[in-house]
Amino acid sequence: MSGWILPKSLRRTGVLGMNRRNVVYIGRYNEREKYPLVDNKLTTKLIAAEAGLAVPDLIGVVRTQHEIAQVRDKLKDLKEFVAKPAQGSGGKGILVVVGQEEDQYRKASGELISLEAVQRHLTNTLSGLHSLGGRTDVAFLETLVRVSPYFDQFSHEGVPDIRLIVFKGFPVMGMLRLATKSSDGKANLHQGAIGVGLDIGTGRAIQAVQHNDLVTQHPDTGADLSAITIPDWEALLHLAARCYEVTGLGYLGADIVIDRRRGPLILELNARPGLSIQIANNAGLLPRLTHVESLDTRKMAIEDRVAYALENFAHDTIRNLGRTA
Amino acid sequence: MNQSGPFLFMVLLLAVAGAGAATFRHHTYSIPWMPGTETQIWQVEARIQFTADGGASQVYLSLPPNQKGFAVVNESAASSGWGFSIEQGEEQRRAHWTQREALGRQVLFYKLDIAVSGDDTWSMAPPQTTPTMIWDEPYQTAVSHLLDTVMPITADAHTLTTQLIQTLGRTPADQNVTLLASAYSRVDLLTRVLQTAQIPARSVQVLVLEDGRRRQGLTEYLQVWNGESWQLYHATDGEVSGADNLLLWQAGTPGVLEVLGGTSSRVSFSIIGQTRSALLLAQEEANDLALSLYNLPIAEQSMFKLIMLLPVGALVVVLLRVLIGIRTSGTFMPVLIALAFLQTELVPGLASFIIVVAIGLLIRTYLSALNLLLVARIATLVVIVIMIISIFSIVSYRLGLIQGLTITFFPMIILAWTIERMSITWEEEGPREVFIQGGGSLFVAVLAFLLMDLSVVEHLAFNFPELHLVLLAVMLLVGRYTGYRLLELKRFGAFKT
Known about the structure:
heterodimer, A: alpha+beta, D-amino Acid Aminotransferase, Chain A, domain 1, 2 domains, six-stranded antiparallel β-sheet, 13 strands, 33% helix, globular, B: alpha+beta, five-stranded antiparallel β-sheet, four-stranded antiparallel β-sheet, 16 helices
């Protein structure tokens, strides 16, 4: 645990605080009517797919109890799939099936369950067991993401994902989230997952933190975290940058996974992305945000924005940016 | 921060409007700023007796003029069979009783409640031109001698009056003084001598207010115009100032009591002094105001006393969350818990809250294994909370702990939701987060309670509802605060270089 910091020094490092994020960035750049686009994972998926963004393929949607009976036909030939609630909170209600053995389904944990158990899970999802506030929900089935083998040594269970903060279409900061044993396989930073700050210019690791403390090795696998370089980095930035046009949200967090066959896929979008990414990057968001605000972005295409970000938000050029902003 | 000009203006407007309205009401309706402020009240009863002739009869009683230091709270007349009205005379008001055929002994009452007030808003009318005094001999000579000795050693109305009072009271008495005193009463003499010196003076009737006095008469005092205001003098003791027990009843002519159609009339006064809550007094006066919380039935008023405290609690939540960054379980749950603390007192409230939530969480762990749907789960929790509370009450009553019974003041649904939310947090984010949020909630609740429990806060919130505009202004201002939260200084402590 590190000590306290004076507000003056914190402002000098350009760290974005919760209040400023809410009032100035989320309040001003994210229109409330666009929230449902990202609060509902199915909607996000559909509009993203429609716009041609890479997402895990949709197998089917279950909207009514009646449709659950028909699920049997759909699942018959599927070896692996993921069932998700559209409005699930905190990763709840996600059923990952990795194989089929004699009418039994094998879960990611290795446990075997029957078709009836899968159907019961879907019924629970529809009646709102997994959604925030208990609202009735919709379930959908999608293809299982097979994470690129590159990450095998860096993660304990769970899917490592990359969070990018996209401001007005510019990817401004990135972080790789790695599940650990103490985070119970979840990629949630305040539960003990590791956050690895990523250099926007190269996709290389800057530093890694767990519980706000610097770490250099993965506590479970012992892998050297500083060696990480995200493959397909430019394609990944490209994918994130396009989310701006698709959702219309000026300040958003894009969660991206890297599939071994298809490359970067959009997993989820977030209209209120957290602030811990700054700790993982050892840099504040404010200089980059104010820098983007000062640009005339109207004539910049997606390619221009990504190129601009690669050049200007790289880790070694950031220092100068901080001085000019 | 564009538009921040109009925004700040609006905030300022709200704050000024709130504070201004409160100040206005404080001054206009004398609602005290502080609770427990007491006002001295004098209840004066004037009793008029006379024997009526049998014909038409009219009675006039001078009523005390508005004067510095006193405010009339209430007045009434009790006199069956008599017509009663209050007339505005030239100098002061008069009570007027009338009856067409009155015979025999008559008793009339006039009751007056006056409050001692610090307000100094009223001044008595300045005197008309002083009439030239005419003295008969040998008094003319005596007065000239008297003035000749006193005048050179005085400077103004005040010193002249004081010197005259001293000279008249001196023993052995001067020859001139003895002569004059044999013909005139002391006050009358002083008045005439002062008027001879071209100084406006008059004799006034004063009621000495003293608790428990009965059949009291009026006392004659001297009033002298010092050029700016009327100054009161006692005929032998000299100047009177700052006395709050002297009620000026009658200044100038005609007499205090005037009876037409009756004989052997006399008026006497009974006085009772008491202190009364300044607030109650203001509420009585506010009765004629259509738009006032005081007009609600008492039960609703006590309801509003609680309701008006809610914004105070809400402000505490806003400040602690936005400025400090304390995490609570449920945004305004702490305020509702604080409201419950107001009924249960702090320590028993805290203890019973923690016990109920802890037991509830324990049972909820079992419920989550059942995989119930949310609504059913909450409903189950409500029943469980009620059962815990019943058992808790019975056990603590058996043990002789009366405080245990106040647990019923906690809102059951809120308790059930708190348990539910904490349990979900436990499952999703771990026990550490539960303790952070639970501790944060209790901290905010205790702070809100301590503030709402202050009698000053309760008093201001209920009696000056317009002060809520000021709270609103503060909330709006905090709502636009973009600086760091206090706890973020720790969260981002790693940036220290």
